[in-house]
């Protein structure tokens, strides 16, 4: 599908009928912002190529994109960089001994404009995740390409680091794979926290409802186009809540700059912006894809 056609579809989707939404303003504490900041840095680290070949090494980011990660005692346990029929699925599993957590971080697309232009709108059966669920065929396939190795590594890490919190995170395409991967890991019996940034819609209403019930932390930024894709007109839905950054690019984000948007398929927040932006996709508290 050509990019020009995509813009038209997104504009049409903005006016699609959606479930009523409730806006809860200024409902973000300093501790919540601190958590989003930390996991934005972990998501940013997945873009740094050195972290994709670093077993046994600390997680680092050239360009000061992840200072809080670098200040902790971290060890990369394994990395994945799989080229498959659905694109590249890349990232790492690492342990943070300072904060006592195991982190699975997925990298976003290396070329966001090309990725948007090439994005298809196909749903496929995902009943293994939840009853009645359908998922974007590419996002589901990207997770399945690495599912066995990641699940095995998480199991090993949980044995070695008993009591550590499991966190799954990612930006953009990485956020979509993170959402599906986190759902599969939860179904396998793991308690975890999910943080995504600029995540596109990953499946149908049943999957969005399941994600909402499981609990997730989904952040959007101003008029970022990616969370508006694939369009609702094609059967895709977003989970709730949405943490919406209301400030522009390269602006320090404070607690008063984030609004909590409550409601599956809300038309407030990011979805309520009339003009879409690719540039807004790169700024999530930090220059989240700066390493790329």
TrEMBL record:
<dbReference type="InterPro" id="IPR005592">
    <property type="entry name" value="Mono/diacylglycerol_lipase_N"/>
</dbReference>
<keyword id="KW-0732">Signal</keyword>
<dbReference type="GO" id="GO:0016787">
    <property type="term" value="F:hydrolase activity"/>
</dbReference>
<dbReference type="GO" id="GO:0072330">
    <property type="term" value="P:monocarboxylic acid biosynthetic process"/>
</dbReference>
<feature type="signal peptide">
    <location>
        <begin position="1"/>
        <end position="18"/>
    </location>
</feature>
<keyword id="KW-0378">Hydrolase</keyword>
<dbReference type="InterPro" id="IPR029058">
    <property type="entry name" value="AB_hydrolase_fold"/>
</dbReference>
<dbReference type="Pfam" id="PF01764">
    <property type="entry name" value="Lipase_3"/>
</dbReference>
<dbReference type="InterPro" id="IPR051299">
    <property type="entry name" value="AB_hydrolase_lip/est"/>
</dbReference>
<protein>
    <recommendedName>
        <fullName>Lipase</fullName>
    </recommendedName>
</protein>
<dbReference type="GO" id="GO:0016042">
    <property type="term" value="P:lipid catabolic process"/>
</dbReference>
<feature type="domain" description="Fungal lipase-type">
    <location>
        <begin position="103"/>
        <end position="233"/>
    </location>
</feature>
<feature type="domain" description="Mono-/di-acylglycerol lipase N-terminal">
    <location>
        <begin position="11"/>
        <end position="75"/>
    </location>
</feature>
<dbReference type="InterPro" id="IPR002921">
    <property type="entry name" value="Fungal_lipase-type"/>
</dbReference>
<dbReference type="GO" id="GO:0017000">
    <property type="term" value="P:antibiotic biosynthetic process"/>
</dbReference>
<dbReference type="Pfam" id="PF03893">
    <property type="entry name" value="Lipase3_N"/>
</dbReference>
